[in-house]
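Q: What would this chain look like folded?
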Amino acid sequence: MEHLQAERIESVKVGILGGLSFCLGYGVFFLVNWAFFPVETNLLPVKLIIALVTGFLFGVTYRYVVRDDQNPFLKDGVVLAFALVRGLAPVEIAHNLTWILLILVIESIFCFTVARFTLDLAFYRNWLKKSQ
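A: My prediction, written as C-alpha cells:
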C-alpha cells in the first residue's frame, strides 16, 4: 500500500513539473506570436490553465511510458502523439485553417519537447523517479 502511495506522489510531482515546463514553452511561443502577429490576450489565463493541465497529463503519461527504456523513438513518439492530438484537434471545428493548424502543431511539438527534456533532465539528475 505504501508503494502505491509513493508512486502516486511521484506521479503528481512529475505531472506538476510537466505542466510548468509545458507552460514555459507555451509562454515562449505566445511571446513570439505576440511580437509578430495580433494575439488576443483576454483568454491568456484560460489558455495557461489548459496548458498546465495538458502538461500535467503529459508528464504523468510520459513517466509511465518511458520507465527505464532508453529507446529515443519511444520518447519521440510520446511527444509526437500528444502534439498531433493537441495540434490537430481544431480540424473538428473548421476545415479551412491550414496555416493555423500548422502553427498549432509546431507549437504543440515545441511545448511537449520542452516538457520532455525538462522531465528527462529531472530523471537523469534523480530529482524525480521514473515509474517502476
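The longest helix spans residues 2-36.
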